[in-house]
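User: My instructor asked us to take a sequence, write out its structure as C-alpha cells, and then describe one feature of it. I'm not sure where to start. Here is the sequence I was given:
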Amino acid sequence: MDFSKILSLFSEINIYTIALRLALSAFLSGLLGLDRGRKNRPAGFRTYMLVSIGATMIMMTNQFVHEQFGTSDPVRMGAQVVSGIGFLGAGTILSVGRGEVKGMTTAAGLWAAGCIGLSVGIGFYGGAILGGVLVYMILHSAKNIDSRIKSDTGIIRLYIEFDREQRFSTFIETAREYGFDIYDLDIEKSKNRENAITIIMLTAKSRIKRSDEQIIDILSEINGVLFIHEI
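Assistant: Let's start with the prediction itself. The C-alpha cells for your sequence are:
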C-alpha cells in the first residue's frame, strides 16, 4: 500500500475530502467547546464549532481558487481569518466589576479553534489533530497547574473596599507588620455618597510562604476592610 498516494488523495479538493475536513473540524472544535460550555463560558459548543468550520471553509475555498484559477497565494484568505477571529474573541472578554476580567481563556480558545480549522481546511490533518488534543488538554487540565503556580509565588492582586473613615495608612503599616509588601496601588473613592468607602486595588506579596486564602484571611481582619476579593 502506497501511503504517499493515499495522502495525496486526501490533499485534493473533492467531495470526500470536503466532508472529511468539515467533520474533523467540527469534532475537534466541538471537543474544545464542550469544555467551555460545561464551565458556563460566554462562547461554548456551537460557537467553537462555527468558528472552526468557517475557518475550514475559508481554507478549502482558498485552495480551490488557487487550484482552479492559478492564483499565486493559497493562504491569503486564511491570513484574514487569523486576524478576524481576534475581534470575535475580544467580544468574549468581559469586565465583571471589582477589577475582575473574565473570558481571556475563552477568547484564546476561540482563536486556537479557528487556527485548527485553518489547518484542517488546508489538509494539515496531523497538525490539526495534535494541536486540537493539546489545546483541549490545556483548557481542561491546566487550570489547576496555573493556580498552583500562582499560589506558590506568594503574590496576589486584590480588590478591597475600605471604610473611608479609617486611615488607609494604618492598613499599610499593619500589613507590613504581618509580613506583606504592598505595591501597585490604585485608589478610587466611591461615587455613591451613601457608601462612604474607598475602592482599592493593590498587589500584596507575602515575605513568608502563605496560600492565597491565608493572605486574604489575614488582610481581611485588618481594621477598616469591608470587603476583599482576589482579581
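For the description part of your assignment, you could build on this observation: The longest strand covers residues 180-189. Try explaining in your own words what that tells you about the chain.
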